[in-house]
Design a protein that fits this description.
Blueprint lengths: L1 H7 L1 E3 L8 E2 L4 E2 L5 E3 H4 L2 E6 L11 E5 L17 H12 L8
């Protein structure tokens, strides 16, 4: 595994020794998170979650820092220009159905 990581220039994000694989018989840190060097400094808060995953493997949670703010996408249907929408739809569907709108 180490040889592979050296040839791909991937970094291991795991921090701590909390097990990622848990059964009644054993607990191991067997799951790893990998990232390229250009994003590794933007990954923050990497952790193994206590949340029930319904699996032997625990959830791994983290955040990615970004300079680009994420705007929620929302459209007001009352402000829709339905005439323009219908014209665009007819143009896009032209020749596909044989039925006019």
């Amino acid at each position: 595994m180490l040889d592979y990581l050296v040839t791909t220039e991937l970094d291991i994000l795991n921090t701590g020794v909390k097990p990622t694989f848990v059964t009644a018989r054993r607990q191991e840190v067997i799951d790893i998170s990998l990232a390229t060097a250009d994003i590794v400094t933007d990954v923050i808060g990497w952790r193994v979650s206590e949340e029930e995953s319904l699996s032997d493997h625990r959830y791994i949670k983290f955040q990615i820092r970004s300079d680009h703010p994420i705007q929620p996408y929302w459209r007001n249907p009352r402000a829709t220009r339905w005439d323009a929408f219908n014209a665009d739809l007819v143009k896009a569907m032209e020749g596909r159905t044989g039925v006019g709108l």
